[in-house]
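User: For a teaching handout, I'd like to show students what a predicted protein-ligand complex looks like in token form. I'll give you the sequence and the SMILES for magnesium ion. Please answer with just the structure.
Assistant: Understood, here is the input followed by the structure.
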Amino acid sequence: MYARMIARDFRRNRSVTLILVLLMMLSVVLATASAGTLVRPVGASSDLMTQADAPHVAQLHVGPYDQEQVDAWAAGRPDVAHHQTMVMLGISGANLFFDGTAQTDNIQQNSLVVPNTERDLLLDLDNQPVTEVDVGTVVLPVIYQVEADLEVGDPVTITGSDGYVTELTIAGFARDSIMNPAITSSKRLAVSPADLADVRAHTGEVEQLIEFWLHDPDAESATFQKAYQDSDLPAAGQMVDAAAFRMFTMIGDGMVAAVVILVAALLLVVGMLCLRFSFLTAAEQDYREIGVLKAIGVPGHGVKQIYLTKYALLAGIATVLGLPVGLALTPLLTRNITRYMGSVPSVWNWVAPVLAGTAVLTVLVLFVVVLLHRFDKISAVTALSAGTTGRQARAVMRLHRSRMPVQLRLGVMDVVGRWPTYLLLFLVFAVSTFIIIVPVSSAATAGAPAFVNYMGTGQVDLRIDLRHADSTSATEFEQMVAQLESDPDVTAVAPMVTTRNDSVDKDGNTASLYVENGDHTLLPLTYAEGRAPTAPTEIALSLLAMNQAGRQVGDTLPVQVGAQVRELSVVGSYQDITNGGKTAKSVLPTGEDDVMWYMAGVELTPGTDAGATASVYAEEFAPAAVADIEQWRIQTLGPIAQQIMVTAVVSAVVALALAALMTALFTRMLLARDAGPIAVQRAVGADDPGLRRQYLTRVLLVLLLGVVVGTVAANTLGEGLFNLMFEGMFGGFESLGQGTSRIDFAVDPLLTYLALPAALLAAVALTTSASSRSISEARVSTLTTE
Amino acid sequence: MTTDTPLLEATGLTRSFSGHTVLHGVDLQVHHGELLSVMGPSGSGKSTLLYTISGMDTMSAGTVRFDGQELAGLNQKQLARLRLTSMGFIFQHVHLLKNLCLLDNVVLPAYLAGLAPRSDLNDRALQLMERTGVAALADRDVSEASGGQLQRIGICRALINSPTILFGDEPTGALDSTAAAEIMDILAELNADGMTLMLVTHDPRVAARTERVLYMVDGRIVGDRRQERYAGAHLDQRQTELSQWLMAGAPVRT
Ligand SMILES: Nc1ncnc2c1ncn2[C@@H]1O[C@H](COP(=O)(O)OP(=O)(O)O)[C@@H](O)[C@H]1O
Ligand SMILES: [Mg+2]
């Protein structure tokens, strides 16, 4: 008998049943996809790092180098398991041609290397080590296959200023566990030892990559790094650790995964609310029937059985349909990862999404079980006598005091009068708006020119970096600045000297800090709080450094300058995600031994071709690295922004579908519930188009409120979530919620405040009109025969 | 007070619900100013007759003319307009909108018709409520009035657009006898002022006060009785005569 009742119920509520299945299916799809997007990059990146045996700490160094000194130091340290030094031959973009195109606009520093054979391996596209490269060929980093469309067989030409030209053929592409993504600005091009020696004789700048493997990297990395920095070992360059490699690899895909997970979580909550709503409405309709069942002696659990079977069946169908869609969607969202890091054929790639989908199913069914407790409260007598459970409506507004069109006014009055009924719809609209705006704004923010502000650099046109190699570097830099200042195309030069100074962290331990010294008022950097330091007694800290030091703007911070410790007052804070994120700005004297590198920010006269100027300077100021900031931004952040945009499109489609489905479900339920009042209004002479307008008014009013609240939430809460994500990615778990990221959403007003709400409006309005046709079926006659 | 062209004329009116015929080719004429009641056992099709004849429900066969106009020739919107401006309805359970106050319930059809400035319509609604003795309840909720009071509000709503005919489906069915009598007084007064009324009822005391009684069985009009206009006296005797007629099988008598 139960089976027949369920079958009849499905037939009777065909469209509502369909909508419910679709809603639950959306939840399953997103849960599956988000598990997939999370599991794949984590799996792929750790697999890449394991397969390649990535170093735990790496120090770049340009200048005189003594291998024996490093060997002796490493031998004396019990925490070092292995160490090795790789020679990298940096080729300037002007001397490097991919398929005939000079790489002057390429912001990457390309270096020729002979691939390692034991550790820190380069892996081919099948994740097999590239240990040998044939003479006359080159294996390029995978980024050039993805972003520059190069193919095996294309030529790579290297020239020298002495007229030297050599041509190598691309033999393949390789994944680099520590320099894979665009945001790591060094790239390793693998060649044969013979070719490296040949090129080295004519062009290029040699750089050492000193690599260490520790016995227990998690526990020892920090102490090891400090010890290295305090020694007099070669350190003319950046030091990076495994955490940073992982972070660089994860930044793009991590953001994608975070967005998808956010959308999935919100959708599950909304899905449950919808389930509750439809369940209660159905229960209301079946109230009398339940009473009858109880009256004829069907036990309470028998009644529950019917409902549980019904909803479990629906959830089951939704899961069966949703799982494959979610699994199919995952490759689209993780396309980027697959290309850069390869896909690891792990069972988890399938098991985790299926588990997530099944978990959603379980949650939905358990939720129905909880809802079923309501049925215990229905007694046979009250069900048969009372009929419905509806609350008594009250008149809060007055029609006879209004000038509005009648149906419009009635719509507004109804929403105001029984707002709890509309709360769910409102929530769904607000969440949909949120789901649409946050990913779009995240993508827009990552792709906006202003984003360089959060990378510790103002929006200058060019950035010229010169490493401190020896005592001549300072004069070299001064000459460069003087030359820049005399250039008619240059409107402003901001010379900066970065030193490494000892300071303290919040526990009083010594911590080193990269301090950029110079006239900071010349760089148009946006400060999160406070202002730029203008005197040697002042310092501005990056948000991460601020957090590490446990200081606020207005406090003082002890900083070792030369031989003495100075108490500097913290006058400002800014966001920086470069150099490990813990940086500072001041106007300290720059004693030679502390200098790490020199940098000049250059503003050009409007209309000057920044790219062309950059390549001229690159040649002129070699070995200094010249970056066209706009190009740099486009090449490093562009792919990330694009990948988030794909997610944003998926989210928007999901949100629109959610809003439309919920509108359909809600409108139908509302019309079923309102059959009485509709019949009455038709009886007194209201026409159907007018009644439809009234229902459209109700839904659109709720939509309007939902969109407003959703938009505000997206720009506050959503922005907060975005920053939280950044904090987690750049500072690790301990900096979560510490305010180390304060990125403002870059909002495209036309898209966010016009196009997207318009799309939502169109979807909702169309669905409401389509769903409100049943208004014509409401008859007073059906009420009186009841 | 009958004239030659009937206000409402149904010929061969048939209504079926999925194969089950509820009205079997009913012929009926209602004249201007008539006070008509329809009696019959439960399920005999009285309500269905009322709703099809007023164009609220669709008919399966037959024709209905209202004021010389064929209902089948009107579209949904025109039918709605006709109900709005020319017909009034009162129901057993009144069917007021619970999210409107009582005055709002009365003015709603007037606002929908939009034939006069809203302040004038508000005034007219209050006049009607004054006349039926419920003006003091204007600002109350539906839940804050008695059954009799609600039915008066229902009558005011039905009258707000000055219809030519008032239909009632068991208008006193949910009321105690005192309240029912009061409602009948109001309806009789309306009729005296020239309003045409067609009331479906179970109650012989209501039917006894009308001047024409139809008796329906199984979707057919089996009895049509005309009686003197009720002048306020001998109600018991009229009721006895009516009962005798009904027990005799309600033979058609003109
Ligand atoms: N909308 C409807 N759908 C199906 N059957 C209906 C509908 N309305 C009325 N009926 C049936 O038509 C018959 C007459 O109903 P009704 O006109 O309400 O009778 P009365 O008002 O005389 O009690 C009943 O058998 C009823 O079940
Ligand atoms: Mg009836």
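For the handout, you might add this sentence: The beta strands of chain B are 8-17, 20-30, 35-39, 61-66, 69-70, 87-91, 165-169, 196-200, 212-217, 220-226.
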